[in-house]
Amino acid sequence: AWYVYHRLQAKERSIPFMATMTREVQPQTHYQPLPPQMAAAYPQVHSMLNPHLVAASFQPVGIHQHYNEEAHDHGEDVPHEGQVHMLITGIDYACDTQSWAGPVKGHGPLDTKFAFEMMKDLAWKSGADYMTLWNEQCTSEGIIEAIREVGAKCQPDDTFIFYYTGHGDQLPDPTGHEHMDQCLCLVDANGNTDDATMTYRQQVWLRDDTLAKTITDSTDPKVKVLVLVDACHSGTICDFTEDSAWARRRQRAISISGCEDNQTSAGTGRGGMFTRALTKAVQGISADSSNAKVSSIYNLTLQHYNQDKRPGHTQNIAIHGCAVRPNEMCWPLHPKKTYSSPANAKWKGRGGMTGLHLH
User: Fold this and answer.
1) ∠ CA 122-46-161 to the nearest 5 degrees?
2) What is the DSSP pairing of strand 159-165 with strand 180-184?
3) Which helix (H) or strand (E) holds 85?
4) DSSP per-residue letters across 113-144
5) Is the CB of residue 298 less than 8 Å from the CB of residue 285?
6) pTM of the complete model
7) How far apart are CA 114 and CA 110, in angstroms?
8) pLDDT tens-digit map of 16-31
9) Would you call 184 exposed, middle or buried from its count of C-beta atoms within 10 A (0-12, 13-18, 19+)?
10) Highest mean pLDDT among 1-5, 65-69, 272-276
């Protein structure tokens, strides 16, 4: 409640939100009541930064003290409901022949194929119905059509999952609603994400507004939504705000992303730090409970990220949501048998990782 209230207050006064946090942090402020005009908007919208890592990026330490806690994980078990329908997308830009992202004129390809295969493996072992798009298939038109196709399969109380691994960036928001739009750096039909002038991106990339609208337009309001994004500048990729379609529909939705809007997400040479930590988190609960909460997975993801974090780079793994808190949503990807994360396996050359289901 404190976070949402002060964020809006900062916006109204046109001062940096972090500055308001610096001056006004008080003990137990999570539990301050909202003013009457905000009561209707909360708890429809919630947001939490990676509590262990905020102090590394922002000062003073008081901010770290305020967020020095994992996501609330108490309460009754949340039963698993409905079916799981998932869209898994990824780009390593090996297909790009003209921009900074590809191997011909840029620094590509990325190591995202590892993370892409990890999520396919997790979806398959969890019994989820899933669809995949890779490289040249990940055009704006292709992803929008795939979201519609997967969303149409979802019935009330089913879960729709969208996963993306690839470049993320920002573009100025032409509507003025936000200063910057968070974007997925998609490709055109020829596999290119940009050009030498860096203007082609305006035509090719998928903005957060479009992603959010496509998901809400393609799913019943009673469908639960989980968005997982391993990309730079992805913190608010779903645009969960008090005046969003998410809130108007009271649709239960949560996003977990590799970093905040002003940060980059690190690769490892074998998949993004976020995806690797996430699959390790699933391994940590898979043998214990089929009713693990999203909050449990998030907290374990933070722990694994902190354990594996490399010097010189910090990313604030973020969780945002609407109409449901992380401890109120069941984690939908539960492997049917004992699960070992491919991130814990050894690479066996072209054959892949030990234990990885390649298909």
Assistant:
1) 25
2) unpaired
3) strand 84-90
4) HHHHHHHHHHHHHTT-EEEEEEGGG--HHHHH
5) no
6) 0.82
7) 10
8) 433 333 333 333 332 2
9) buried
10) 272-276
